[in-house]
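Would you be willing to look carefully at the protein I have copied below?

:::
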Amino acid sequence: MARPRTHEPEDLLRGVGRAVTLLNQFSTERPTLDLPMAARALSVPRSTAYRLLRSLEVSRLLVYDEQRRAYRLSLALARLGQIALAGVDLRAVAHPCLRRLVEETGESSFLLVVEGGAAVVIDTQETDEPLKLTRPVGTPWPLHAGASNKVLLAHLPPDVQAEILRRPLARVTPRTITDPKRLASELTRIRRQEYAVSTGELTPGVVGVAVPILSGARLMGALAVAGPVSRLPSSRTPRIVARLQAAVAQIVRDLEGTENYTKSRRWTA
């Protein structure tokens, strides 16, 4: 069915266009935008640029940084972006890889994204082993605890990380990291090595191994394998990381429809 023709007021269309122009000024190289930069980008007086910036702030799409005297993107936009990435395509493309990971590792596999400031499982495949980890689809989990959750947190924008680290970090188990400085150091290490391993941070006696799903610098989600300590000694970590990274490479190739996806690997299969 064809969409009906609309006759939006010209001022409304112009305002939406200017808002999109401003939002497109942000990048990893330029995470903040001040008033003079906004006015130049729109070729309008500063008073006009200020009204638009203020409207975006009131709409919770931008946050004003008093120290830098500039605006940055809000967590609401990060949440919307992650919701978009958690769409049917990612699940559909990743599902065969989840099944294959169970066959290759003998443990349950999980696909996660960031949504609403938490890590959320959007697909999973369980092992046939009687003793196994289960994480229900759609359940939110804290980003600071567990390999899969921390690998997501480690690859979020620095401003988003900082905001999360300022919040109280709940102790889920005795092994959960609740000290912000220690967690920040852990996130730096995870980001550098591009994988995470945890033992008992969310569930006692459970080991998790996870890698990020990245397309360029864009975080799309995380892929993880988890199971009991008795079946996942540290000697298995290199091979499991390699399996996970191979699965991520396949997922991104399928999503992008290209063979040009490359990423450095610490481990080889």
About this structure: Strands lie at 32-33, 62-65, 70-73, 108-115, 118-125, 140-141, 196-199, 206-215, 218-228.
